Amino acid sequence: MTTASGQSGGRPEPRAARRVSARGVAALCWAAVALEGYDLVVLGVVLPELLREPGWQLTPATGSLISSVGLVGVMFGALSVGPLTDRFGRRKLMITTVVLFSALTLACAFATGPLGFGILRFLAGLGLGGVLPVAIALVNEASEAKGGSATTTLMIGYHVGAVLTSLLGILVIPVLTWRSMFVIGALPALALVPLLARHLPESLPDSAEGKAERSPASILFRGGYLRSTLAFWVTAFMGLLLVYGLNTWLPVIMREAGYELGAALALLLTLNVGAVLGLLAAGRVSDRIGVRTSAVIWFAAAAVFLALLSVPLPGIGIYLSVLLAGVFVFSTTVLVYAYISHHYPAIGRATALGAASGVGRLGAISGPLLGGALLSAGMAYPWGFYAFAAVAVIGLVSVTFVSKR
């Protein structure tokens, strides 16, 4: 961990890196996560155009397959980059992951068919999956805050990137083509990568413990960490199941409940506005009362407000209910990541974050499947909200099983 003298566990940092403050580290990582947010959402923005691309003969089913393949790449990237980061250093892996996903994103602009495009999305996912675990490890090691504000602020970058993708899609695609969206997504790396290389400090521990540790992944399963590791995995799975399940199916479920299409889409926007507000609130609260207590409260509140969505409310009442659900649902996983970053020793921190993020991606894939199954069975409303509330309860229980350290 970087010390006041500018050294990382006894290893001198490059002179430029020593001058970077905790805010500078946070800004660089925030930019990287914003690019990740852009890249993970861009497929949804261009998919309507891909379905009409001459010669591709893409169907909604094959489009969904390409999306899933990209998420599988993200999962493998998160699982593999964590141990590499703890062994070779945060700085090197952050630069590598940004270069990897940016180059492959650019390559997507020149894909000639769905097979090549899907392969490129999978490979880009390997880099995308590694950005978040490394970034969370870096900002929490640079920050003096004991709560989750460093992590929640970082995740706002993801949402900013996602919003920019949607806005640019509206402005760019009608004028140019869908391919230009991938070029735009790759170009910022030309400025960001040199900044990362020059200013990002190395926070790889160089202690006797770090030298003796051959496999950072083994830390997750010994020394009293096994129970916590399994609990974090379950919690991350449930948290991302909620996020992706609701983002995918909320408008459809609200249509089943009798709301007009415009209102259903407005409720989805309201849900994501609540997500940003929730990140801001969760960071401040966790700094005051601790990240463990905050995670418990957030999962409990998410369960309550998800269940309340099954109650028909007039006028602004439903918007307020959805807003509050967004405040708590979207911040649960972020608080879990913050909890992980404070729970494990530095030598295994990125490995723990990557493993939880990778397992969580299985929840991201399962969320849309759960919603789709309920819709197919004609049980989306109100039982869909009860099912999501039950998922939040499981997350609540699992986070309480994390060992206190």
UniProtKB/TrEMBL annotation:
Determine the domain of life of the protein's source: Bacteria
Bilayer-spanning residue ranges? 25-46, 58-81, 93-113, 151-172, 230-250, 262-283, 295-312, 318-340, 352-377, 383-402
Alphabetical list of InterPro entries matching this protein: MFS (IPR011701), MFS_dom (IPR020846), MFS_trans_sf (IPR036259)
**Does the entry feature the keyword Transmembrane, yes or no?**
yes
Q: Which GO terms describe its cellular component?
A: plasma membrane
Q: How does it sit in the membrane?
A: Multi-pass membrane protein
Residue ranges occupied by any Major facilitator superfamily (MFS) profile domain in the UniProt entry: 25-405
Protein localization: Cell membrane
Task: Assign the protein's first listed, main location to one coarse class.
Answer: membrane
The molecular function GO annotations come to:
carboxylic acid transmembrane transporter activity
Keyword line: Membrane, Transmembrane, Transmembrane helix
Cite the PANTHER family for this sequence: CARBOXYLIC ACID TRANSPORTER PROTEIN HOMOLOG
In Swiss-Prot or TrEMBL terms, this protein is called Putative MFS family arabinose efflux permease
Q: What taxonomic ancestry is recorded?
A: Bacteria, Bacillati, Actinomycetota, Actinomycetes, Pseudonocardiales
